[in-house]
Fold:
Amino acid sequence: MRPETGHLIRLSDYLPPDYLIDTVDLDIKLDRHATHVRALLAIRPNPKGRAGAPLRLDGDELKATRIALNGIDLQPTAGFVTPDQLVIEKPPQEPFTLQVETVLDPAANTKFTGLYRSGSAYCTQCEAEGFRRITYFLDRPDVLSVYTTRIEADKAEAPVLLGNGNRQVSGDVPGTSRHFAVWHDPHPKPSYLFALVGGDLGHVRDSYTTKSGTPVELGIYVEKGKEARAAYAMDALKRSMRWDEDMFGREYDLDVFNIVAVSDFNMGAMENKGLNVFNDKYVLASSETATDADYAGIETVIAHEYFHNWTGNRITCRDWFQLCLKEGLTVFRDQEFSSDERSRTVKRIADVRTLRAAQFPEDSGPLAHNVRPDTYREINNFYTATVYNKGAEVIRMLKRFIGDKAFADGMALYFERFDGTAATVENFLSCFADASQRDLTQFKRWYEQAGTPLVSATSAYDAAAQTLTVDLKQSTAPTPGQSEKKPFVIPLSLGLIDHNGGAIALASEDAEAAELQSGTFILKSPERRITFRNVASKPVVSLLRNFSAPVRLQMAAGPEELLALLAHDSDGFNRWQAVQTYATDLLVQAVRSGEPTAPIDPRFIAAMDSVLVRAHEDPALAAQILALPSETDIAREIAKDIDPDAIFAARDHLQCTIGLALQPALTKIYAQYTETGAYSPDALSAGRRALRNSALAYLAAGDKALGLELAKAQFDGATNMTNRLGAAAALATLPGAARETMLKDFYARFADDALVIDKWFTLQATIPEAETLERVKGLMAHEAFSLANPNRTRALIGAFATGNQTQFHRADGAGYELVIDVVARLDATNPQVAARMLSAFRTWRTMDAPRQTKAEAALLRLKAKDKLSNDVADILTRTLA
Ligand code: B3K
Ligand code: ZN
Structure:
């Protein structure tokens, strides 16, 4: 156990490192059970550090075999070197070298951080604190070093040897069956960006010429035989490289850029300098095995990791509190990229859905934290939707607040001023304050206060005076450790629509000219009133257009107004939002009334019909509008005493009613959008498939027999995974022999394809019926299941805990018990993934009383275990607090 385990680390305690490490020379001899690592560190006292301070290098489960200072061996006696640290009490106060040899057992590394084995390959994951599992180091992001890495391995076992930077030399080790490669990365970098890979991998190669004419060799390494499935990722990579040059003026800076796909990975991917390592889920795609959503995910993640080369690698974080500096900004950049490559409105809707589904519950529960946290006990638990997705929203707001031009100038300043440094949020904001000549002090609260602000808006029309008064208020509920919230700077995009659907020009004495021109009004005090003049008739207010701020909006709007927005709003996002709001209101009312299956307002059905009529204008948008709010969307609105069964019943009833009432129109769409020609993952084709699959889901809900017939035919005849999985999902909702036959057939077809079998597990884990619990338990004993593989664990247990509201939150508590059992087992081997699973409990206090009792009992049972990792203990303590 490391002495600092569980300690609270505070941003306010930050001190610069006492020593700097200028160069790192590594010699790594790969072996399954005894990998020998020799590290030669060139160290010097940091002029900004404490003179004469001891040198404390971090370690984690390390075994040192030799330590030498300036070439002279030190006896590794107890106390000065332990598995967790290496301390030199009185190091030289001038430059010196430290040579450290460690021996690792990668095959036994089940945590998948540090050096480990995935399949037959060796790979690494160092962010956030994995490098200390390879050698002793100042394992913090503000220590930047130039790395040279010699990797040696058995030629047959690992013909491919990859490292950071450019390859310098390679060759055979004379008289042995081994070979080596030396990689040199000229860009100083923090240890978390170190990576190496060794294995017998297939590859695809391509090349790219930067705007300034420098050629770059591109390589994607995958499991042998899967090379063809890397084509889309390669295409996405080249498009990302071009986009970053065009939009941000950022060019790539090494001779090679390599990506390696592995099947055992704790998260999505990792931006190691010049050597990105990916979860193969975000690299491999073929039309038969990947859905349109998978293709979109690959495009996004490839772009995200590539964009990190500037926002993250060239400019890194001073400390882990600044994580949003690279993550929020890079998510913003990948969202912009995907918006440019696809449909901006549809992408915005998808991103807001993600934010609401993943970040809003975090921000209103026990795990709420600032976009830039003040404290942490386990940094790996802060790679959250708040840091990533809300972090991206904050950048988007900043852009809206200061304007596109000042934002672009601020980004250019940031790259100019901070290139090659480890920066802070303050550094970042100073560039935008300078570029815009605006004071960003209040804006900065978005980084410093947790919680989702509630904006309430009311409007009053005065026909005689031809004025419309809009009253805006903001408030933010307390979050753990923060009872008082100061007002945020909230940019609210607003438009007025007249009764014919036309836009009304904005005129007002209470607003600034820039606000009237841009339609973005800034709410920075607790309340603001804006009176619009020259409003000839009672308008409809379209507020929070394009989701201009990550807030919850409360605005009394009746069906007429929502229907007018759906029909006429020039803002596509608010057309979608109008239906979401309408449906959520209906469903919340149905649940609250205690009659979840009461008759549905016919005006809503008519609205959905109008969406089908206009579907050809933008099939992808129509599919989004047709998708009813999720069970968790409804639960969030209800906020307390939640009964997921009632929510499910209400939503299911609405889906069935629409499916039956609109059967002719849905059938027409289903027939009209039949797949023709070869599969293409482009946004337009994907939108057509999404619309057709949405029609299928409604038809199956409305008429089981018809649904069964259509879905069976679609499943059997599908020529791509989007259509096959769309059919399988429809069949999964229909209990009976056809479903079981489909599941058998699905497994038989794809048994050898891990990523597809993950889908097969998820399909079953998310069936909303009581038998699913036993099914999931049975699947845990299936030959294809393994807790050792994170994708598989997420596909079955993660999907059950987050994608099956009625069964995870079963009234008898058996869903909670199942997940807690898995967390307890998994914690012994992979604490990071275990902690992630456990965070499904973050909404437990919003459930009804009987469910809360069951959830608490399960959590306390976990707490009673004597050996919990720091990762799980941290989430558990905060969840129970
Ligand atoms: N930076 C990595 C995440 C590392 C997570 C460490 N627990 C991937 C990314 O955000 O690009
Ligand atoms: Zn990232």
In short: The pocket of zinc ion (ligand 2) is lined by residues 304, 308, 327, 330 (CB under 6 Å). The chain is about 40% helix and 20% strand.
